[in-house]
Amino acid sequence: MYPATMFLRLSVQHLRHRPVRAILLALVVAVGGGAGFTASVLRAAIQESTSVGMNRMGADLLIVPRGTAVNVTAALLTVEPTDRTIDAATVEAIARLPGVAMAAPQRYFALPSADGHGQDDLVAFEPGRDFTITPWLSMKLDRPLRRGDVIVGGRRPEVPGGTAMLFGRSLTVYGKLALTGVGPFERTYFVTFETAADIAAAARETVGREVFDPSPDRCSALLVGLKVGATTEQIRFATANMEDIQIVTGNGLNTSVRHTLTSILGGALMFTILMLATTAIMAGAMYSSLLGERRRELGLLLAVGMRPREVARLILAEAALTTGLGGLCGIILGGAALLLIERSMGFAFASRQVPFTWPPLGAVLQMGAVAVVSCCAVGIGGALVPALQAIRREPYALVRGENA
Q1: Same domain, yes or no, for 243 and 349?
Q2: Count of domains in the chain?
Q3: Same structural domain, 101 and 226
Q4: Which CA distances in Å does 119 have to 74, 209, 220, 281?
Q5: Dihedral sign, CA of 345, 350, 355, 358?
Q6: Does 269 share its domain with 204?
Q7: CB-CB contact of 246 with 222 (8 Å)
Q8: Chosen domain end from 207, 229, 250
Q9: What is the DSSP string of 92-125?
Q10: What is the pLDDT along the chain (404 residues), one digit of tens a residue?
């Protein structure tokens, strides 16, 4: 049994002996690997960037207590003012329906205004399930939303980092929403259910009575995002036995655009797989030709006592090394392509006021590592069949250069 370092050393020596062939094979793999890496990073960037724009369109459906009057334009972004609520069991049953991708409960509270005139709107939501409020954040603190924070509508005077006073309780302004053109969004306070409980306790101490019930077990509305392929009719049929709710539908065009974009991004993954498969076929064809020219060399290795299995390992090690180097070159080419894409696509996104966000550096490095490993696997897969065919022949026939 020969050590692995010997196979690596022999592979390097052979690559140095035939540099042109090695470079050509590496370039073939670099194109496939670079295209796969670029497609993966770009897919993640577009998905992250467009998710903000897509979610700003609002929910596909709004589920509210039966008999609630709803302004459809505003309903897709936030709950409408109502005293009626839905119980937690109904909310979870709807969230588990097969066609539901996202389900964000919200609770509306009408609070006496601090100046004694009118009222302030307070909406409690779950940040981990929300997909209609946080996408509208235009400014925010550089940390996660936590208990004691409040998000303010775009027309409120507070700014991030400042404070908002509700019933004597000082709340940190975590972020401010962009102007949406939707009335309830512009002057509302948005807090977590835990913060709403703190405000209710402060109101009880200030007023001397229960001003509102912040119980998270009930919600005023449930905003629903559908999975690709799911329809409003399916949700209506699935909830037909829930007599205490009604379904309000949104703009069908928004739903169609969101689902179409999701399908396109899914197609990018198939493109990456197709590119790698094509590269594997090309690598296999090239190795069939290369091994055909190296018949005498392989025959001599077998004749001097190297086992067929070890000859195959040598061929596969050389293929992995060559295609791995090609994968590294592909990442460099892909990085250059991504810089060009940022100049064009990033400007297009910015002109439509949608941030173009690249994945975190750690995620990009992980995609690069996966691309290199995939290229090595492509090389091994492409060289496997020619290697097995070569080692099955007699050493004498290989040395003589016979085709049979």
Answers
A1: no
A2: 2
A3: yes
A4: 19, 17, 18, 69
A5: positive
A6: no
A7: no
A8: 250
A9: HHHHTSTTEEEEEEEEEEEEE-TTSSSEEEEEEE
A10: 555 565 566 556 666 666 666 677 777 777 777 777 887 787 777 666 666 666 666 778 888 888 777 766 554 677 777 788 899 899 999 999 998 988 999 999 988 765 555 678 899 999 999 988 888 888 899 999 999 999 999 889 899 999 998 888 899 999 999 887 777 778 899 999 999 999 998 888 887 777 787 787 889 989 998 887 788 888 989 988 888 898 888 665 555 655 566 666 666 667 667 776 776 677 666 666 666 666 666 677 767 667 777 777 777 777 778 878 888 888 888 888 888 777 766 666 665 555 667 788 888 888 888 888 888 887 777 777 777 776 776 766 666 665 54
State pTM to two decimals: 0.61
Question: Are 85 and 45 found together in one domain?
Answer: no
Q: Which of 250, 276, 310 is the last residue in one of the domains?
A: 250
Please check whether residues 394 and 286 belong to one and the same domain: yes
Q: Which domain holds residue 311?
A: 4-54+259-400
Alpha-carbon span 151 to 174, nearest angstrom? 6
160 and 80 housed in the same domain? yes
